[in-house]
Design goal:
The protein is built from 6 helices and 5 strands, in the order αβαβαββααβα. The protein is α+β, with helices and mostly antiparallel strands and 171 residues long. The chain has one domain: Roll (Sulfate adenylyltransferase). The chain has a 5-stranded mixed sheet. Helix 4 crosses helix 5.
Length: 171
Amino acid sequence: MAKDPVQAASDVLWEAYLQTLPESEQGRRYFEAFQFGAGRAMADQLAHLVLDGIKTASSDLVWHIEAQGKPQWRVGDEHVVLDGNWQPVCVIKTTDLDVMRFKDVDEAFAYAYGEGDRTLAWWREHVFAWYANQCREIGREPAPEMPLLCERFEVTFVPAALKDRGHPGPR
């Protein structure tokens, strides 16, 4: 059976990344390949924020993860980030994970989220709307107490073609 083209492209990027590592680390796998956000324009915008080192945090609704039957990732897991065209653009590594209530997210996390004007007020308004939609999809009531898996991450690999276009890669 032919491999999915997104999976195949993600695997190529992953293999290029592995070649930059010591041989003892070249057998590992990435947790998943994914887009930040929804839709082409948003995925492109957020991928660029990641590549430029502005977006260094994200979150996921714990209820949504559970409803999908998806395992939670862990600190140290690596992921392939896809742009709006479903093309892999970089590898990120989870550096910190905390489950916290939506209402307990602080100014520093909202800033690291890298979106909008990077304030807590902007984050609460826009991210609540995002998770309210997910809650409706799974039959849950959105609330300030809804649990989020809050992640901080770092870029560990950017392919040379993107570095040549001004995305510096890992800092």
